[in-house]
Design goal:
This protein has 374 residues and is an alpha/beta fold. The protein has helices at 16-30, 59-65, 74-83, 94-105, 118-122, 131-143, 157-165, 181-184, 210-219, 237-247, 258-267, 282-289, 320-332, 334-348, 353-373, and strands at 2-6, 34-40, 48-50, 52-53, 69-70, 86-89, 110-113, 151-154, 171-174, 196-201, 226-231, 251-254, 270-273, 277-278, 293-298, 301-302, 314-316. The model has no long low-confidence stretch (mean pLDDT 92).
Length: 374
C-alpha cells in the first residue's frame, strides 16, 4: 500500500505528535508498506517538502513553543495525494485540510489520528483559553480536516468519548500511539540510595503545569532528599527556575536528547505527569516503560491517568498537597516502589509501537476495503 502521511511539523524533536508520527512511519516501512511524508522543511527534508508558514499575529508565541506550520502549497500537495493509495492526516491545520479535500476529489480513502485538543494550543494564549472558543475550535476541526476521514485513530478511550460528544462523523478507533522498543529493552535501573530523583518530561507551558510539582516538592516531608529534573523547553522556563529558587527546591531544568533522557529515566525513582490537557502522554509512557513509577494528574482533558495501576499512581490535577502525599508515600515505601516498577515495565510491553502499528495498518486496510466497496 502506498501511504501518504500528512503533518505540519514532521521533524520536531520535542513535539509528541511529530515523534509518534516518525515512529509509525518507520514501523510501516518495516512492515513492507511504501510510506511517504508531506510536511514542512523545518528540521529536515520530507518526501514532499513544503515551506514554513509564518503567522504574523502569533509569530512570537509559535516560536517560543517550538512549532513550525507548513504552507499549503497546492501543487505539491496535489502531487503527493495523486501518488498515494491512502492519505493519513495527522493534524487539523491547513495542509492536512487541503490534502483531505484533494484526496476526496480524487476518490482516495482518507484516515487520520487525533493528536491534540484545542486547549493544547489556547493554553498558551489565555485570552483564547475559554470553553466557548475551545468548543468552536473542536467543531472547526470536526467540520474541516477530520470531516474527510473515513476512520480516525483515537489514542485513548477518553479521546474517543470526547469526539463522540462533539459528533465526529468518522469511524472512531481506539489505538495507542505506542511505546518505542528503545524504552522497553535493556533498561539498567541505577537508583541512588542517598537521594530520590523525580523526573517530569514535557514542554514548559501552562497546560503541562509543572509548577504544581515544584510546589508539591516544597511541601514534602522529604524535600531535602529530593532532586527534581524537569526535562524539556518552553516559554515558562525562567518562571520555573525562579519558583524553584523561591521555594528552595533542588531542581535542574534542561532539554535532553533521547539517549540522555533514557539515562535519566533509569536513575529516577518516579516520573510525575502534571498536565491538565493531554491526549495520551507519550513521555510519561516512555518513562514508565523503563521502570520509572508514574504519578499522574487526573483531569477531564487528560487521558494519561488511564495508565495509573493504583490510586497511588494518580492525583487530582493542580493539587500540590495530594501530590506531595503521593511523593512521600513512594519515598517511604521502597519495596512497593520496586514492585510497581517491575509491574510497569511488564505493562508497557502491551503498549509497544509494533502492536499499535499493526492495529493502525488494519484500520488502513479496512478504510481502503470499505471505500472501494462503497
Amino acid at each position: 500500500m502506498k501511504i501518504l502521511i500528512v503533518i505540519y511539523d514532521y521533524f520536531n524533536k520535542s513535539n509528541g505528535m511529530s515523534i509518534s508520527t516518525q515512529r509509525f512511519v518507520k514501523q510501516f516501512s518495516k512492515m513492507g508498506q511504501d510510506v511517504r511524508v508531506l510536511a514542512s522543511i523545518a528540521g529536515g527534508e520530507p518526501d514532499y517538502p513544503l515551506s514554513v508558514m509564518t503567522i504574523p499575529i502569533f509569530k512570537d508565541i509559535i516560536a517560543k513553543e517550538g512549532f513550525h506550520f507548513a504552507k499549503p502549497e497546492k501543487a505539491i500537495i496535489k502531487k503527493a495525494v495523486k501518488w498515494a493509495d491512502l492519505v493519513h492526516l495527522e493534524d487539523p491545520f491547513p495542509v492536512c485540510s487541503y490534502a483531505g479535500k484533494i484526496a476526496k476529489e480524487l476518490k482516495k480513502p482518507i484516515t487520520g489520528t487525533f493528536h491534540l485538543y484545542p486547549e493544547n494550543l489556547t493554553a498558551s494564549v489565555p485570552i483564547l483559553d475559554h470553553h466557548s472558543i475551545n468548543s468552536t475550535f473542536m467543531k472547526i476541526f470536526r467540520d474541516t480536516t477530520f470531516n474527510y476521514c473515513n476512520y480516525l485513530q483515537c489514542p485513548t478511550t477518553k479521546v474517543k468519548q470526547r469526539l463522540q460528544k462533539y459528533n465526529f462523523r468518522s469511524k472512531l478507533v481506539v489505538i495507542s500511539n505506542g511505546i518505542s522498543n528503545y524504552y522497553l529493552e535493556e533498561n539498567q535501573r541505577n537508583l541512588k540510595s542517598n537521594s530520590f530523583t523525580i523526573l517530569s518530561v514535557g514542554r514548559f507551558s501552562n497546560e503541562k503545569d509543572q509548577k504544581t510539582l515544584i510546589k508539591a516538592i516544597s511541601l514534602s516531608k522529604y524535600k531535602d532528599k529530593i532532586h527534581l529534573i524537569l526535562a524539556g523547553k518552553g516559554p515558562l522556563k525562567s518562571e520555573y527556575i525562579d519558583l524553584c529558587h523561591k521555594l528552595n527546591v533542588n531542581a535542574h531544568l534542561a532539554f535532553y536528547n533521547r539517549d540522555e533522557l533514557k539515562h535519566i529515566m533509569n536513575q529516577s525513582s518516579i516520573v510525575v505527569h502534571c498536565a491538565n490537557v493531554e491526549v495520551e502522554g507519550m513521555a510519561c509512557m516512555e518513562a514508565f516503560a523503563t521502570g520509572c513509577v508514574p504519578v499522574i494528574a487526573e483531569s477531564p482533558l487528560s487521558s494519561t491517568s488511564a495508565y495509573a495501576l493504583s490510586p497511588k499512581n494518580r492525583f487530582p490535577a493542580g493539587n500540590s498537597q495530594i501530590l506531595a502525599k503521593r511523593i512521600d508515600y513512594w519515598i517511604t515505601h521502597p519495596q512497593d516502589l520496586k514492585t510497581m516498577s517491575a509491574n510497569y515495565q511488564n505493562y508497557a510491553k502491551s503498549l509497544s509501537i509494533e502492536n499499535s502499528a499493526r492495529k493502525v495498518l488494519t484500520m488502513f486496510e479496512k478504510a481502503q476495503k470499505n471505500y472501494v466497496s462503497n
